[in-house]
């Protein structure tokens, strides 16, 4: 394959690949096939490169030299890579905005293209409920899920229960956990109940983003 064809291929794939990486880092999905990843990168990259070339021709006075034959100008390369990054963050922003509007206003529910997983939904930052975690060995813990991992390819997810205490079946404190919290994995959990905090305790909750 001629070198120029390889360069052209990379030009069209790179921005789409960057956009895809940024988007799926924010909204994980099950492992995609190599063909799907390549197809998304090529289609996305072609759109980004075409848009940059159009902007360069009509508004930038060929400042990026996007029409030059042969090896692309360094300015054009930087522009398409930056375009991929911007496209990725724009994709994240638009989906986040649509999902936020759909949750806030019932009439706009059609804006949400697909629902978050239940695990992500119950751990969203604006939830102030306590989590009562029932384990396979009969132990019960009460606390806040402050950190969690969501891996669509894994059946089990780990999470940290902070401000935690071991409680009995009446939710009476047996002893507090005075360290960072209780590290747990969903494979050891039979169920999780969410209850409203009392005495303003929910106002002290500080959620951290998913890992």
For the sheet with most strands, the description reads: 6 strands, antiparallel
Number of strands: 6
Which sequence of SSEs, written as H and E, runs from N to C?
HHHHEEEEEE
Q: Which percent range describes the beta-strand content?
A: 15-25%
Q: Helix- and strand-based class?
A: alpha+beta
Shape category: elongated
First-last Cα distance: 41 Å
Poorly predicted regions are 199-211
So how many helices?
4
CA radius of gyration is 24 Å
The percent of residues in helical segments reads 40-55%
Question: What count of domains describes the coordinates?
Answer: 2
Average pLDDT, to the nearest integer? 83
Task: Give a written overview of the molecule.
- The protein has helices spanning 3-26, 34-58, 74-104, 118-122, and strands at residues 130-135, 140-148, 158-167, 173-176, 182-185, 189-195.
- By secondary structure, the protein is of the alpha+beta class.
- Strands 1, 2, 3, 4, 5 and 6 form a six-stranded antiparallel sheet that branches.
